[in-house]
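All the exercises in this workshop are built on plain-text protein records. A record pairs a protein's sequence with a compact description of its fold. The structure tokens are whole numbers drawn from a learned vocabulary of backbone shapes. Once this layout is familiar, the rest of the handout is easier to follow. An example says more than a description, so a record of this kind follows.
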Amino acid sequence: MKIITTSDWHIGNLFHGNDRLQEHRHFLKWLLLQIKELKPDALLVAGDVFDNGNPSAAAQSAYYEFIADATQCCPEIQIVIIAGNHDSANRLEAPRALLSRHKVDVRGSIHRTWVQNEDGGRWEIDYDDLIIPITSKSGEKIAVLAVPYLRNDVVQNSNYSNGVNSIIRELTARARTKFPNIPLVMMAHLYAKGADIATSDASEKIVIGGQEEVIMEGWSNHPDYMTCGHIHKRQHIWNTDWARYTGSILPMSFAEIDYRHGVDFVTIDDRNKIETKFIEYNLQHRLRVLPENDEELTPKRLQKLIDKELADRKGEMPDDDFVYLMLKVKIEKMNNDDINELEAFVRTKNAVLCKIQKIIQTVDVCTITGNQQIQSIDDILNRDPLEAIKETFLVKNNVEMNEHQEEMLRGLLQTIKIEE
């Protein structure tokens, strides 16, 4: 059995205002070549197909054109797609009846039925709908357990992690009963506790406080293999060899500049031994950050670095292989004229300037003249408010108050004192 797993396409995404549809078409064309060459029995897409719940007509066309091409070039392939948190579950599943006739199974949401009883009633999940058997050309069989992103209204548990665990473990147990002698491959879209995510400028929509973290330690009767979407960095989950994130197919922010992108090629032999091979995808547009370190450069030196590192633009518009660029500048060394000159210079290069990150040097408050050592609450209460505010202004803005600002502050503090 041969399977390609992938996730987090985010078709329709804008990167710092730049339409990425051509990048997505570039990836889908590459993926189609992998399908033609490897002839997998199944393609599993673990959610976040689109970047938002109301994708453009062009984004949907790219998606459906790929499905049509994949099923035409490889008629025996079984495609299974689940919804992620960025997708509209209903929109993704709307053409389900039509797509299923072409061996494309879509699960946007979990289907439930209300069952009345003496306690009032409860929701019963249709677990069988989430179990999709797949048979290879040579007769091997697996069961795919398709678990779309589970929202709180579906989980219906005061503890989200416990609720998700209850669903996926019950699903696994039922699949083992229904298909006792074949491998189980679970595909889910979730945030596993301990997953490595970007800590700055992150585009992964993680709920504050980890409310949607799923703790899955101690799961002895787990599926034979699990592929997940949601986290953009490809990695193993819970330090296991049976569960992993495939990762996003494109970087979603400059914080993901070092991520690797591609798909996993999973093979299951006749002894149910599972092997995974990473097939790397070369981005159409790489990300570049200049300077790569925190070196402080004058405007002229930064221009020289840009000239050295980036290719010249051949025409008025960037070539098909342009890079996305972020510049790091120390604001005390740059004025608006310098910034405008840098932007104009980048327009002569085969690059698209996405962001100018202004770096403010950290001020050590202990070196500020007149700084007091705070050792107790009394020290705070007895501080001169004027000096405390001036110190805060310096730390925040990296420059001292001018005489006019200080005079205004004195007047404000005096007014407050009189009113008190």
About this structure: The first strand starts at residue 2 and ends at 6. The chain is about 30% helix and 25% strand. Residues 2-280 form a domain with the Purple Acid Phosphatase; chain A, domain 2 fold (CATH 3.60.21.10).
